[in-house]
Structure formats: C-alpha cells, structure tokens
Design goal:
2 domains; six-stranded mixed sheet; globular
Length: 226
C-alpha cells in the first residue's frame, strides 16, 4: 500500500471512530490524540500575532499621550475631544494617534494596590519618553513636581502663550524645594467642559522629558483659543 493510500485509510478509520462516539467522547478523543497539534497551531497563531503587533506598533508614533488623573466628574470622561477633534486639528494620520487614559491615584493610608500599579505605569511611560501631558488634581501635580518629573512652564512656554495665560500658572515645589510653574489651571475653559473634567483634575502639566512639546504647546493654544 502506498503512503497516500495508507493516509487515506487512516483518515477513514479516524472518521469512523468519531462517528461512533458521543459528543463528549469526541472532544476527549480529539484533545487526547491531537493536543500537541492543537497546541502547535495555537502557538503558531500566537507567534504570528506577536510579530504582526510588533511590526504595527513599530510604525506607530503617537502624536500626543495624555494621562488624566483623579477626574471626579459625574459625567464620563469625553476623550474624543483629544483623540478625534485635536487629532484632526493637528492633521495627524492613523499612525499618529492621540492617546488618552484615565486613572485614580491616592497616597499614604489611602493608597491602594491599584494606585501603586497606576504609579508604576506612569513611571514606565515617563522612562520610555512616551507620556507628554497629565491632567490631574493638585495633589498629583505637586507629587510629580517634587519628583522633578514636570517641566517648568515659565521656562519652556513660548512668549505668546505665557503672556496670555500667565495668570493661570500653578506653582509646586520641585525636588530641591524650589517653586516651579508645574501646571496651567484650565478649569472653566470650553475644553475642560467638553472633556467633562472636574475642577480638581483641571491642572495641565507637561512631562519634563516629553518629546512632543511643540504639540503640547499647540494643545494649550487650542484650549485657550490662541
């Protein structure tokens, strides 16, 4: 018997066995005799998925990455203001998404495991130079300023922006205890209202090592209609 005929005969035998089994027996039989084949297929699919995702991500360069911390509005955060409206305004394409995430962070006795996980994520994003903007409450603004994680807006903002919004600067102490302009208070702006930001979470800061400062400046102009 040729190899081809032998394979056909084995296939007929397997098919006959399966027809005579109950549904549960079929599942057991297929798993017992083909689990390594099934595992191999799943592994291959997983590897292909990882490769495809890696290739796709390698070609994506976010136009802006914003983290919203401790927004306590009764309304759901409206991320489309940044992800869609600002994205379109900047003329970004699909490979330049604007990312917006939201999290809650508490400190001291009120700190939770989720808070520690959130802080770890922010640290990782800062270390990789991916995070550009945080919109947060005063406590978190002060916290990240004390870690020297925020840019001094008095030093980096273009003159036209500084002259227009200088009265909205918020000051925190840096790692040496020196005051820096750590944020802009954007409460009451159409932008803050459209995003459904609570007053507590309306302090905009630029991460000190952001690679997208020009885009951050464009966002501030957008927020204040400059």
């Amino acid at each position: 018997m040729s190899l081809k005929d032998q394979l056909k005969e084995e296939a007929r035998v397997e098919s006959r066995k399966l027809k005579e089994m109950s549904f549960q027996d079929k599942l057991w039989y297929i798993w017992e005799y083909y689990k390594f084949h099934i595992a191999g297929v799943f592994l291959a699919i997983l590897l292909v998925s990882v490769v495809v995702t890696s290739v796709r991500n390698a070609s994506i360069h976010p136009g802006l990455y914003c983290m919203v911390i401790n927004n306590r509005s009764d309304q759901e955060l409206n991320t489309s203001v940044l992800e869609e409206d600002f994205h379109e305004l900047m003329g970004f394409d699909k490979k330049q998404p604007v990312y917006v995430e939201s999290m809650y962070i508490t400190y001291g006795d009120n700190a939770t495991e989720l808070s520690y996980a959130s802080m770890a994520k922010i640290s990782a994003l800062v270390a990789s130079k991916d995070l550009d903007i945080i919109l947060s409450d005063q406590e978190n603004t002060d916290h990240y300023a004390s870690l020297d994680g925020l840019a001094d807006l008095e030093k980096i903002l273009p003159a036209d922006i500084l002259s227009a919004v200088g009265d909205r600067l918020f000051f925190s102490a840096d790692g040496l205890g020196q005051p820096i302009a750590s944020a802009l208070d954007i409460k009451g702006t159409d932008f803050a209202d459209a995003m459904h930001l609570s007053e507590e979470a309306s302090y905009l800061s630029i991460i000190g090592n952001s690679q997208q400062t020009e885009t951050a400046f464009a966002l501030i102009r957008y927020i204040f209609g400059l």
